[in-house]
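tokens incoming
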């Protein structure tokens, strides 16, 4: 029984990644969606990573002081990545994985 558990711990799980670059062409505007292609559905989630721009020192200090005193943009603090129509296949892969995970969870609960 214990050997089986150890075998599961060392099992290689394929990581799947899709990279989305912004329509604007700025390579710092990118999103990476990553998930584990695990047949056992132990991790049904998709991890979404954004690149965070690094501002010059004085701008970071200015923003830090503004943050301490609670100043915020009236629009909130958002970045954006504009997806291109040709990204639909990558997005479909993400959606297919989430649907598969959702169906597996639903199946276990019923
Ligand atoms: Zn952009």
């Amino acid at each position: 029984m214990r050997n089986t558990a150890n075998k599961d711990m060392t099992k290689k799980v394929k990581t799947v990644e899709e990279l989305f670059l912004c329509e604007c062409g700025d390579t710092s505007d990118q999103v990476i969606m990553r998930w584990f292609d695990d047949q056992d559905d132990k991790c049904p989630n998709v991890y979404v990573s954004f690149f965070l721009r690094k501002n010059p020192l004085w701008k970071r200090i200015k923003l830090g002081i503004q943050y301490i005193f609670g100043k915020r943009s009236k629009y909130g603090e958002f970045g954006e990545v504009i997806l291109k129509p040709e990204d639909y296949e990558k997005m479909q892969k993400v959606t297919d994985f989430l649907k598969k995970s959702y169906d597996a969870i639903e199946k276990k609960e019923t």
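note: Residues 1-6 have pLDDT under 50 and may be disordered.
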